[in-house]
Write a structure and sequence with these properties.
The chain is mainly alpha-helical and 770 residues long. The chain is built from 37 helices and 9 strands. The N and C termini lie far apart (98 Å).
Length: 770
């Protein structure tokens, strides 16, 4: 039997019920509808039930996605036949653009739009979905693709309107409503004249229809508000480069960058699986060069599609040149640069300057202080404008801190703009201003860690916003690490030798807290060069010693550490500096230990102790304490734990004398170091019960003064002691904590901690000895 147009839904429903072996009563009960309503549907008296009812019937019948959609199409046609027909729309008026055949990913966003259609809104307001974000994310493609998918659910029509936000004159609400009303069948002669009357008529017409409305490329809230239905079941999808944060009661659809594999999938759909599979590695690299931005990926894909013999690897190499990347990311009239330029032109003069100057900042993100300095505007104004740039999709905000970052391609765009619009002298002045400020603040912040500093350090360039206390000073130094390091480079190149030296001298106190940073090599190499340029042999020896420490303790390069220590020793002796002579001997000995030359190390350490004992100042006492600790450590590691214990007990006595003029922090640091050595001495002598207490005290002090790498190292040592005491459960807990801490700070001892844990889990208990 042939199903006519008018009874298609009823015949389809009856056939599906019969095939499922269900009676009308059974299907009605499962779907939650009345038997009478179901009978009317099957007889054709109800030709177009609502979407929610169709959904329930499909679920009760066990239909798959395709079957459900087919049933809904039949119902949608019936709804058209059952409803009063609207006045005919002009042919082709506001039709949806063509869907993209190779649309990729965005499953979460599409599911969110499906949910808006499936679920009745919690209020009487029809649902509005806002898709906003960075230029090139594929917002329009998502809206159009979703609209085509949802077409069967909106039998009264689908309308698409470009609001032209990036034009010099965006579409006025008056004109937008004229187009929408015309598409809904309102004749030109019947169009109301005033905006308010057009709004009322539009909302009256949409209240009685199930429409899908795509408002693409919206400018701002005032343009958009008159175009939003207020009653009925119309779904409105809005796309905009602006966040439209002022819109209330809307659903915001998240549009992140594509994941790398999603980006490769898009290239595959454009180019074909054979071509991408042959060069899968290059496809992934190409996705990286495009920053996983859909527009850039599409441009690259279209370019390659037009050149079927060109390899993906070639395009990767071409795009490696950052200064040419944006120019080359174009295919016909598809241009990444053009998309960014449209947004840039919407900004006022100051915001343009702020955006392009942010590209001069070092590192992956920028703080408001740095941005304000580079742009030469007040901090409060920079804070406000940075937020506005985020709302426009040109910057991304950090979810936790007040920091901002570019998408990779937008950073290249901003760099191009600052090169084109700011001359060399202007850029140099901005970098000079920022570098001087950054070095001054870094110096003041680092002095919070100076063992001889009492009270708040002076010299911050903006005392009103200066970090107070060690915790905030450390947070600032960590957050702005890239920026003050860049300032140090700038100062060295500019010949500001004294400022380089003063900043590095202050930072050396902080370096002990952030010992895991490899950048200390660069800091102290530059400060040693600055001292040499100034002709200060004392400062040169001092900073060469800092450099030796950094090579040994931060990047574990004993050869380089020994070279720096030997140079420091030569310079210190030449200028008659006994304190730096002793430190050079100590650092050289530490490097020799790392090179497996203990006898030479012990000889140097004995010289260092003797050198410092003749230097009775406070700094001499601290240096003697460090030398005694290192001498004892070297003796213990060379099988002479008894001698080591004697030296470390001498160190403990020095600590108990409370060396005058030292901060509590510095005294705690040296005491914790001595306790650690004593614990390891006792362990080496087999006196592990005695080893536990000093090791636990050392862990407590290192934790209190916030030195995580040392805390993790001592936890590892305590874990070994507990294991030998046959206290496996405690050992496992301590070793696991050590592994977490050392791994978090990229310390090479993490491998040792992991091995100890593995051995503990697979070995028999180790009986205590001694």
């Amino acid at each position: 039997m042939t199903t006519t147009t008018e009874d298609r839904f009823g015949e389809r429903l009856r056939a599906l019920r019969t095939a499922a072996g269900l009676s009308q009563e059974q299907l009605a009960h499962t779907a939650g509808v009345s038997v009478r309503a179901l009978a009317y549907m099957e007889r054709g008296r109800t030709r177009g039930p609502q979407y929610k009812t169709v959904k329930a019937l499909a679920h009760a019948l066990g239909l798959d996605t395709e079957g459900t959609r087919d049933l809904e199409v039949a119902a949608a046609f019936g709804r058209r036949r059952s409803s009063p027909a609207p006045a005919p729309a002009p042919a082709g008026a506001l039709d949806l653009p063509r869907d993209i055949r190779d649309f990729t990913a965005r499953g979460t966003a599409l599911a969110a739009l499906d949910a808006l259609t499936d679920t009745p809104p919690p209020s009487a307001r029809p649902p509005v979905a806002v898709v906003a974000g960075t230029p090139g994310l594929g917002k329009t493609a998502l809206a159009v693709h979703a609209a085509h998918r949802l077409t069967p659910r909106f039998p009264d029509g689908q309308l698409y309107l470009d609001l032209r936000a990036t034009d010099p004159e965006p579409l006025h609400p008056d004109d937008a409503l004229a187009l929408l009303l015309s598409a809904l069948g309102v004749a030109d002669r019947a169009l109301p004249q005033s905006l308010d009357d057009r709004v009322r008529l539009f909302r009256c017409l949409t209240a009685t229809r199930r429409l899908l409305l795509v408002l693409d490329n919206a400018s701002d809230e005032p343009q958009l508000r008159p175009l939003l239905p207020t009653n009925g079941t119309t779904l409105t999808i809005v796309t905009s480069r602006n966040a439209l944060a002022g819109l209330q009661a809307v659903h915001r659809i998240d549009m992140p960058l594509l994941h790398r594999e999603e980006a490769v999938e898009l290239l595959t759909r454009i180019l074909g699986s054979d071509r991408v599979t042959r060069e899968l590695r290059s496809a992934r690299e190409l996705a990286d060069r495009c920053g996983n931005l859909p527009l850039a990926l599409r441009v690259a894909g279209q370019r390659l599609a037009a050149r079927p013999r060109e390899t993906l690897a070639k395009l990767v190499v071409v795009l490696d040149h950052e200064e040419r990347r944006l120019d080359l990311l174009q295919a016909g009239d598809l241009k990444v640069n053009a998309a960014f330029t449209l947004s840039y032109r919407q900004l006022d003069t100051v915001s343009r300057k702020l955006l392009r100057r942010c590209a001069l900042a070092a590192g992956p993100d920028v703080s408001p202080e740095t941005a304000a300095l580079l742009a030469g505007i007040p901090l409060r104004e920079a804070q406000l404008r940075l937020e506005q740039l985020c709302d426009r999709g040109l910057l991304q905000t950090d979810p936790v801190a007040e920091r901002y970052r570019f998408h990779d391609l937008l950073r290249l765009f901003a760099t191009e703009r600052t090169t084109a619009e700011d001359d060399g002298a202007t850029r140099a002045a901005a970098l000079d201003r920022t570098a001087r400020w950054m070095l001054a603040r870094a110096t003041a912040a680092a002095r919070h860690f100076d063992a001889e500093q009492h009270g708040a350090p002076a010299g911050d360039p903006d005392p009103a916003t200066a970090p107070t206390g060690r915790e905030r000073a450390r947070a600032w130094l960590e957050a702005e690490r890239n920026q003050w390091l860049a300032a140090l480079h700038h100062a060295r190149t500019a010949g500001w030798h004294r400022q380089v030296l003063d900043t590095a001298e202050a930072l050396h106190w902080f370096s002990d807290v952030a010992q895991h940073w490899p950048q200390w090599i660069d800091v102290f190499r530059r400060s040693a060069d600055a001292a040499r340029a100034l002709g200060s042999r004392h400062d040169e020896a001092t900073h060469l010693n800092y450099l030796s420490w950094a090579h040994k303790s931060c990047v574990h390069q004993p050869h380089d550490a020994l070279d720096a220590a030997d140079t420091a020793l030569s310079v210190a002796r030449a200028c008659g500096d006994p304190l730096q002579t002793g430190w050079a001997l100590l650092h050289g000995a530490a490097a020799l230990c790392g090179l497996g030359r203990p006898a030479e190390a012990i000889a140097r350490l004995r010289q260092a102790v003797a050198c410092h004992r003749g230097h009775s100042t406070t700094r001499g006492r601290l240096a003697e304490l460090s030398a005694l600790n290192e001498l004892g450590k070297a003796l213990r590691e060379n099988g002479r734990a008894d001698d080591a214990l004697g030296h470390h007990l001498d160190s403990l006595e020095l600590c108990r004398r409370r060396i005058p003029g030292q901060s509590p922090y510095n005294l705690d640091l040296h005491l914790a170091s001595v306790l650690r050595h004593l614990g390891n001495d006792y362990a080496a002598l087999g006196r592990r019960q005695e080893a536990e207490i000093p090791l636990r005290r050392a862990i407590g002090i290192f934790t209190k003064i916030d030195m995580p790498t040392r805390t993790g190292a001592v936890q590892l040592e305590l874990g070994r002691v507990l294991r030998h005491l046959d206290r496996s459960a405690e050992a496992r807990t301590v070793l696991a904590s050590a592994l977490d801490t050392l791994t978090a700070h990229h310390h090479p001892l993490q491998v040792v901690a992991a091995t100890e844990l593995s051995d503990l889990d697979h070995a028999r208990p180790v009986r205590a000895q001694g």
